[in-house]
Amino acid sequence: MFTQEALDGVISEWLARSDPSPKRIRREWATQGVALLPLGQRFAAVRMPAPIVHAAVQSQDRDRVAVALGESLGGSIIHDRLVTGGMYYALVQGHAALAWAYQSVATCLGYGTYLGVPRIDRQEPPGTYWVVPPRYEGDLCAPRAITALLQDGRTRLARQDEGGCAGVSAITEAPTDVPSAEGTGLS
Q: Which contiguous run of DSSP H or E holds residue 164?
């Protein structure tokens, strides 16, 4: 029988092996709490703006958001509050970025991009942390679940905007000019 510590070790090793130098990744986790991992092979990440996610789950409460995302997306999710407006990153299959049809809503980051991935035990602020930590190797979100969540969030934001909430519609699309190193908040 595995202990949680042993399981976390297996998951951490799976994440670290996404980089050609797993030793460097383990060192960054030990010293900084976050390591830059390459995307596109082992996994990719869908960058979801916090306002859309919060509208979809109808809450900004960290615990409620975590439960709702865990139930609706069924995979690993990172939150980075240091990115303007806050971003959630849903981990998906590595090839997903090649066929992602929703770039104007939420960008799927793949080959050529690095994501700041927190150490497995980093599950609360400050800085970049796991909202829904991986439960096992390859614990990834289903793209269809992500698109349903995003559509729901956009619909709710549009309704709020029609009801007179100024400025909400301006945040329904993900930025397109973000540098290639995502979610690098260290504190």
A: none
Q: Sign of torsion, CA 175 125 76 50?
A: negative
Average pLDDT by stretches of 10, the chain with 187 residues: 86 96 97 97 96 97 97 97 86 92 90 96 94 96 96 94 54 37 47
> Could you give the C-alpha distances from 54 to 33, 48, 60, 61, 129, in angstroms and in order?
25, 10, 5, 9, 17
- What is d(CA 33, CA 134) in angstroms, rounded to the nearest whole number? 16
pLDDT reported for residue 103: 87
CA dihedral defined by 52, 74, 132, 4, rounded to 10 degrees?
A: 180
Structure tokens at 88: 């959630």
Q: What is the pLDDT of residue 162?
A: 82
Q: List helix spans (H) across the chain.
A: 4-16, 22-32, 50-57, 62-73, 96-99, 143-162
**pLDDT given at position 51:** 95
Q: By the 8 A CB rule, do 44 and 108 touch?
A: yes
> Strand 181-182 to strand 114-118: parallel, antiparallel, or no bridges (unpaired)?
parallel
Query: Tokens 């997903």 map to which residue?
Result: 96
pLDDT, residue 92, reads 97
Q: Which pair of structure tokens corresponds to residue 112?
A: 């050529």
Fill in the amino acid letter for 160: Q
